[in-house]
Design goal:
By secondary structure, this protein is α+β, with helices and mostly antiparallel strands. It folds into two domains: 137 residues, Jelly Rolls, CATH 2.60.120.10; 84 residues, Arc Repressor Mutant, subunit A, CATH 1.10.10. 43% of the residues lie in helices and 26% in strands. Helix 2 runs antiparallel to helix 3, helix 3 packs across helix 4 and helix 5 crosses helix 6. The model has no long low-confidence stretch (mean pLDDT 90). This is Putative transcriptional regulator, Crp/Fnr family. One of its GO terms (cellular component) is cytosol. GO terms for molecular function: DNA binding; DNA-binding transcription factor activity.
């Protein structure tokens, strides 16, 4: 990947200097995974930082035989950055939802890069704080109606990873179980609400292409904000 394309794809590197980006790309390792393949196992956290070049992944928390989806990440996002600073054991893994292309940078090299480039270090802290705030907002919304919570999830995914198409803002058609987990509502409520949104024409699901188009993003945003 070219330096310019890399910096444009990943907001983390928007203001990083060319020397920093060239150095990272020279040591980055490319990975390709099919859907449903484990990308990062629970015992591998802290070894590297991963950057999503294309596709979608989910971060799961493991509870013995059970697992709950904590987050959905798409193109331009990254994961593993917190674990390089925290050596405690992890009970989470990362699974490819679709075919996914990743770049990884070893923990040691990434930390060395942060020390060399204070602006990158600052930008990383900003994005970590932003994630914490988003988690805070989810917690504050825990008592809102399921439809409002689900609208918030859909709008957030569209804002972070959506692509503009003639059909509307397009994202991956997230499996209902995962969508329910990250929204913190039941699978039954998720299915019912998604059916209603589709019947209203606010969303359009293309099962063959595994896409979900937010046709009426304005209405969904209003639902997310006001209920």
């Amino acid at each position: 990947m070219q330096t310019k394309a890399f910096s444009e794809l990943f907001p983390l590197f928007n203001n990083a200097d060319k020397e920093t980006l060239d150095g990272l790309l020279s040591i980055a390792v490319e990975h390709e995974y099919p859907s449903n393949r484990a990308v990062l196992m629970e015992d591998a956290w802290g070894n590297a930082v991963y950057f999503v070049v294309s596709g979608w992944v989910k971060v799961r928390r493991l509870h013995g035989e059970n697992a709950a989806t904590l987050a959905i990440l798409g193109k331009g996002d990254f994961f593993g950055e917190m674990a390089i600073l925290d050596e405690s054991p992890r009970s989470t893994d990362v699974i490819a939802l679709s075919r996914v292309d990743l770049l990884s940078v070893s923990a040691q090299k990434f930390i060395q890069t942060l020390f060399k480039d204070p602006q990158l270090h600052h930008r990383l802290l900003q994005l970590i704080v932003r994630r914490l705030r988003q988690t805070n907002v989810r917690f504050q919304r825990r008592n809102q109606p399921p439809a409002v919570k689900l609208a918030n999830t859909l709008v957030s995914l569209a804002e972070n990873y959506g692509e503009t198409t003639p059909q509307g803002t397009e994202i991956f058609n997230i499996p209902v179980n995962d969508l329910a987990d990250v929204t913190d509502i039941s699978v039954q409520d998720t299915t019912k609400i998604m059916d209603k949104l589709e019947s209203k024409g606010w969303i359009k699901i293309d099962s063959a292409r595994q896409t979900l188009s937010l046709v009426n993003l304005k209405q969904l945003t209003q639902l997310a904000k006001h209920g």
